[in-house]
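Sample entry copied in:
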Amino acid sequence: MSRKILALCLVTLLLSNVLFCACAETGGVDALSAADQEDLKFLGSQMAEPAEKLMKYGEDAPDIYSELSWTSQADTFPETFDLRNRGVVTPVKDQSPWGTCWSFATMAASETSLLTSLGMTAEEYKETYGEEMDLSEKHLAWFSATALPSADAYPAGKYPYAISQAGEGVYPAKHSTNSPYDYGGNYFFALSGLASGIGVVKESVAPYTDKEGKLDSEGDWSLPETLRFNQDFELQDVNILPSPALFDKDGNFVYQPAGTEAMKSELLKGRAVGVNFCADTAMPSAPEIVRTRLMNKYKNTDGIPEEAISAYVDLRAGIVDPASVSDADLQKIMETALRIFQLQENPYTDLNREQQITVLKSTYFGLDYTALCEKEEAAAKHVPYLNFTGEHSDIYAHYTYDDAPNNHAVTVVGWDDKFPASAFREGHQPPADGAWLVKNSWGTDWGKDGYFWLSYYDKSLYANGTFEFITDPSNTRMSSLSLLDYDNMPAEIISSTLYDHPVYAANIFKTEEDSVLQYVSVLTGDLNASVTVSVYRLSENAQDPTDGLLLGSTTRNFLYAGYHRMELDEKLALPSGTRLGITVLQRVPSAGKEKYALTNTSSLGENAVEVFNERHKDGRVHLIERFCRAVVNPGESFISFSQGNWIDWTIAIDNFKSYGECSLMAYDNLPIKAYLYPLNEVTHIHRLEAQTKDLSICPECGYILKVIR
């Protein structure tokens, strides 16, 4: 069966020679054995389920751990805990004027994790380095939502990355005039960006302002392409934790204590935990900020004059008193709004002046008046999830009491088992005491100095993650690191398909200089995965990822699903032009029986935009403002259901796109990456015997060595 992890809102590339597996040359899937065809069919059927949920609900909160055993990481937990007491929580920030909560929450969690790994408080870090521990939210947000440039943007031979991957990444939907900073995202979006080599960098590299140093959403917030793969700290692991909030097959909420224990375990290790939940309280914004955001969203729409758009925006944002608007000007504003929302006919012709003003100020513009009023009435009757009045006026306590889509990312820094259920909204209180201490990104004027409490039993709590970085100077050489990687598309779905027999994933790369391979990273989708990575130096005419000399294998165990960077047991010295085959085998325990996992990533493709938005006109789910484009070429990624018989990943993609909603998805290369350093910066102290007659560096062979720095 399959386990899926889903997210919404969600380097220098080195090219391998093009290789084709036998099935690609002789008829595709039909050339496979019956057993391989059946396994490939199963994979396609498993891809369909998360794609269909994404298209139907706009999100999915699957239980990736139900069949897999969970062991608590602590014998006992204290009743209360607060990472601020350790001095490793950085100041609360303000994400205004953009919808970049996911990047702010990621950096908040990363800053705390880095301070813990460095063994420093925030004050000690500043005293030592002369600057705050402050990571750039802008850098991650911009480059995660901006595709790799096209090859046409550079002179011939000057493209800075592998030209085979040119153009991969995120694009705005045709109807969207939103800034990339308002596309939305969450921790899987962040995982994809960081894993591809985007940051993290210090705030001074890409400060959260426009180019004039202002918080003006109409300013220029772009970043130069040369900053894309800058790093001040290298990513080690992203841990995807089990969620406390699950829903069974009948749609009933199920509280999962293992999710709470996992979050507490990570907090005790000094790692703040990123979470998503449903916030029905909007980011506080003055009318002027609302105006600039709306102008940025609607300007240049279908050639409408900016002054006409401005008149509509001024009315909607509350800048202009409706009483001061003449009937004639009101009709012009209505015509502008109809054009902005691409309505061919005016459904509001028969409304009186007051009703038309109500329509123009509504966020539900476009619905017929009756439906709009029902929406407004339902919104007015909604009992807010956040409580900050009455007896607990000094406490901001949030509890999502119904099934609602998550829409906001924040950072958990502590807990209190005794936080009273009575502190939450009367009539809509959780079933028991207990809450998370949460750091928000709406500034210190909101909440209790920027913090609030979130019930353990919140029904929207989802996508919990922690981040770890390499901080040992002897193992960090960011200035010279090269990352061999095809996987640059942000992931909205991470799928792990479980088989009863071994299933292998592989990528083929080619080195561009004499290098030492020190790390390989993988993506896992299950609890307690045992991952074996094998590295092959391929022969000149290799037709699969194992056709050559096996240089070495490394096995590591990972408690959580997520991104994991493995240090190889033996470092591999590789001459320029070496073709590498890197294979991955994942074993996971399941119901007392070992299974094998195949992990891959996907996102909503261009064809999904129109279909998704048509299905969600009711406004419950945010319409898509962007889509993803994957670039997968033959000879880059492979899978094998029977060792020795390799299937090109492009063949697999073509096959399972015929299942359900899979045709609307963009499927990326397999998430296997290789990390190398220039050989002239590495000193080796001894070599291991290999089955070659010559252990010196040459075009014919590589050698295995240990490294000291």
